[in-house]
Model the fold of this input.
Amino acid sequence: MEDAGLRIHRTRSAVVEAARSIIDDAEENLTVALPASELSDFESSLRDAVERGALVLLLIHGAPTDADRSYGDRATAVRVIERGMAPLLVTADVRHGLTGQFQVLTSPSTASRSQVTEFANRNLAYNHFTMFLGNYWQLATERYVAERSAFPQTFTEFRFAVLEAALAMRDGVTLEARARVVPTAGGPETTVEGTVTNVRQNIVYPASSPSPAERSLTVAVDGESVTIGGLGATKETYECFEVTLERKG
Done:
């Protein structure tokens, strides 16, 4: 990347190429906001990201004409927002991405007045990731969520564990968790086991956290409640490396 991680794109072809490259590079999580009319240009890359096991959150500007279409092979969750309320935005693994005026895609003739900025900077990626979840994602309408997985299942990507636990909770399914963790206050690795009593997240309805970055499980262990967060967790009781979820009973 040029200029301390920033690169400006003003043509449709350059933006499409850059966005596809970022989507193709995502390994763990991907956020994408784009006009419904432009989705076809990115469907192949989105399918590949889902197949790789990335958590793909897709925000579409304006309801697609086929409102009942299935997005199962293109995203983990899809939301629709009124046209023009969100920018073009892509982030991959909260480490790089691009953002700018979506008119670069929809109205190439205005390219001289529009631009998209590609960035390879973790701080910028985190800021845009949290803005996506905290603002645009919360304003949008849930259109699709991947079917809940069969249990038991083991997760090394904590975001997927939280998503699956949230879907189970809203379906009235009680889960048991067995997690490989370390205390955030310091100490050796250990294992905690117990019933999942709460999930803090804002990816699927109903949102249970005002913070776009918060994803945690609350687990009852020996009569006490402990909280488990993903890698880098500081506010929770434990930082999780791996967790297995299974139905209780």
User: Anything to note?
Assistant: The chain has a mean pLDDT of 90. The first helix runs from residue 12 to 25. The longest strand covers residues 190-200. Helices lie at 12-25, 43-52, 103-106, 122-139, 158-170.
